[in-house]
UniProtKB/TrEMBL annotation:
It comes from Pseudomonas capeferrum. It comes from the Bacteria. Pfam families: GerE (PF00196). The keyword DNA-binding applies. This is Helix-turn-helix transcriptional regulator. Residues 205-270 form the HTH luxR-type domain.
Length: 277
């Protein structure tokens, strides 16, 4: 498929449309099997050239569980699959949005991320540092606090998805959701039972608990997630000046001087086993 400029409406040729429908039919016919995730990823690939994909099971209060991946470069695979699922997910805007009850549908990173996320150390480490500049997500509701997330990553080639491609991915969301929903009904009981990691919220609540006040920890969490002073103030219902005061105090107590040092301290704390296995 020819890559469109960012603002060019996308049109599909008859041949491309036929390939998409054939791939979708294969995905539907295999939707109750363990191979369903491969087929739905292949169908998306017929529609839009996506560099890499990842499908995960998201359970309320637990770490996401990887179910399928394709296209993640080997040089970045350990960082994406080991660092992210061990601890990095705790600051991921999509994971946090899902934990907060994000409705099923299709979302682009810019629709979910906090206002300063693209300047955050998390974005630099877990997105740019692994060759990704943007992310899109299908979210599928299952049951009992469970969702499927289907991530589409772009960036290693330096080419971003056009607005037309994003609109096309959004338009096929009902079909993608149908295939993933069928797969989940027949294949995910064992995966749900194997979830072992502790509460996401508990990880945030315990970071710095020995030296920081509750409000200072809340401000630290907002900074780590990529919120600006203004956004933090709005989210917490306090003034920007109060946010700055809490930020200054928590930096003093943690003996750090910047957001980068706060991010490094949080990641080091996670690696030391703060999130219970």
């Amino acid at each position: 498929m020819t890559q469109a400029s960012p603002d060019t409406p996308l049109t599909l040729s008859l041949g491309a449309l036929q390939q998409w429908h054939a791939a979708l039919q294969r995905a539907l016919s295999h939707s109750e099997t363990a191979d369903a995730l491969h087929y739905v990823a292949a169908a998306i690939g017929e529609l839009v050239q996506v560099e890499s994909m990842m499908i995960s099971l998201e359970c309320q209060g637990q770490a996401p569980q990887l179910l399928y991946q394709q296209g993640i470069p080997e040089v970045h695979r350990a960082a994406v699959l080991e660092r992210y699922f061990a601890a990095g997910y705790l600051l991921d805007p999509f994971c946090l949005a899902v934990q907060s009850g994000l409705a099923e549908g299709f979302y682009h990173l810019e629709e979910i991320a906090p206002d300063h996320f693209f300047d955050s150390d998390y974005y630099k480490a877990y997105y740019l540092g692994t060759g990704c500049s943007e992310d899109s997500y299908y979210i599928v509701d299952l049951s009992q606090g469970r969702k499927l997330s289907f991530s589409l990553f772009q960036g290693c080639s330096g080419t971003r998805l056009s607005s037309g491609q994003i609109d096309l991915l959004r338009a096929v969301e009902p079909m993608v959701r149908e295939v993933l929903g069928r797969y989940a009904r027949y294949n995910l009981e064992a995966a749900t039972a194997s979830a072992e990691r502790g509460s996401v919220q508990a990880a945030f609540e315990s970071f710095g608990c020995q030296v920081l006040t509750d409000r200072e920890r809340e401000v630290a969490h907002m900074i780590l997630r990529g919120h600006s002073v203004k956004s933090t103030a709005v989210q917490l219902g306090i003034s920007p000046e109060t946010v700055r005061m809490h930020r200054k105090n928590l930096y003093l107590k943690l003996e750090i001087n910047s957001q980068s040092e706060l991010f490094a301290r949080f990641i080091d704390w996670l690696r030391q086993g703060a999130v219970a296995s």
